[in-house]
Design goal:
4-stranded antiparallel sheet; about 5% helix; mainly beta
């Protein structure tokens, strides 16, 4: 049973940075593409970004491109979301996700990945 556990959320001022972590257990981490979504109050869930199994390829939503990065360490079963130049509109619950079918844009932007974490709250004050 694959489980994902996020950590690292919190309160930060606009312009600041946070790094979220997500640890996968119950599966072979290196076969999964890993990604992040977020959901703000009153809004639909939004795709943030994804990294392929090897860490070579990433892509991001336009709203975070140039500010957020994703990295992974397959030896540690961990993926990170580095968030810089945070804005109040980045306030949301951030969810880690995993899918062994790969990091294709259609899957991640539309149909949705297989496994989800419980989420971690990020709040950005103005």
């Amino acid at each position: 049973q694959v489980q994902l556990v996020e950590s690292g959320g919190g309160l930060v001022q606009a312009g600041g940075s946070l790094r979220l972590s997500c640890v996968l257990s119950g599966g072979r981490f290196s076969i999964y593409a890993m990604g992040w979504f977020r959901k703000a109050p009153g809004k639909e869930r939004e795709f943030v970004g994804v990294i392929n199994w090897s860490g070579v390829s990433t892509f991001f939503a336009d709203s975070v491109k140039g500010r957020f990065t994703i990295s992974r360490d397959n030896a540690k079963n961990t993926v990170w979301l580095q968030m810089n130049s945070l804005k109040p509109e980045d306030t949301a619950i951030y969810y880690c996700a995993a899918d062994q079918r790969g990091s294709g844009q259609y899957l991640w932007r539309n149909s949705g990945p297989e496994y989800w974490g419980q989420g971690t709250q990020v709040a950005v004050s103005s």
